[in-house]
Write a structure and sequence with these properties.
The protein has 14 helices and 11 strands. It is α/β, with parallel strands linked by helices.
Length: 318
Amino acid sequence: MDVARANDLAHGIVEEVRKVIVGQNEAIEQMVVVLLAGGHGLLEGVPGTAKTLMARVLALVTGTSFRRIQFTPDLMPSDIVGVNVYNTVTGEFTFRHGPVFADIVLGDEINRAPAKTQSAMLEAMQENQVTVDGEPHELPPSFTVFATQNPVEFEGTYPLPEAQLDRFMLKIAVGYPDEHAEGSILDRIEGGFDSDDLMTADVRPVLDASVLAELRAAARTVRVEEAVRRYVTTIVRATRSMLSIALGASPRAAVMLLLAAKANAVVAGREFVTPDDVKAMALPALRHRILLRPEVEVEGRRPDDCLSGLLLGIEVPR
């Protein structure tokens, strides 16, 4: 697949998802970026902002399988990856696949499960496989995790370990829609739309899992000039020397930012990466990979505030 064809397909995915989701254009595009780049996405937003629905629609539009895992304090790793079950007829153990065996997996409220259960996702998200009783089991080639968490409710939650956070290519902020978009949501409901039946929105698949694999391969071929690559490196290295940041981004963050910028170029309809692609992906790619100093947090500053200031101080290549 050439990049021009990839541009058309990416645009088609975004437009089909927008038939259902109103007022979340930036979040939709970032989810498509994650899917094209072969990464995983962490969706953060208050309840009722269509995080689950966006994942469902994305799976339908891309013709891929979808499974939802509701993370709870009593969820066990075997509930996610699967378990070996003894077959009394054959006298052998057979592997019963868990819900993680799907193309798109939604980990709903992932921070409600303890670290032991969250760690069950680490191998899957990094190596595209799970190991049960010493035996590896391959996950689907298109395996992608979209996890959700509530930014304001802390009772009964467990902070995601840094290693877990680092597995997510982008941390996608899902906010409230604007007034016009929120009114459009009610208009659609009155017009007969039912979020439980996506066919009421006339959504259609624009590709399947095999075409998605070609689309990802095409995204990798997007050109990145040396000056733009050095721009990525400069941004990531600058996070390690900024006074307001206690822990800067790692080399993996630079890789994730570069891949996300490539996929963003595809979504934008270009065959090459521009500095604007890097800047557009810098906040979602880095906001969960830095730690602010305590005194900075006390002042009410957020990672996005520090990163935005950092970007303003770095010369953009021409």
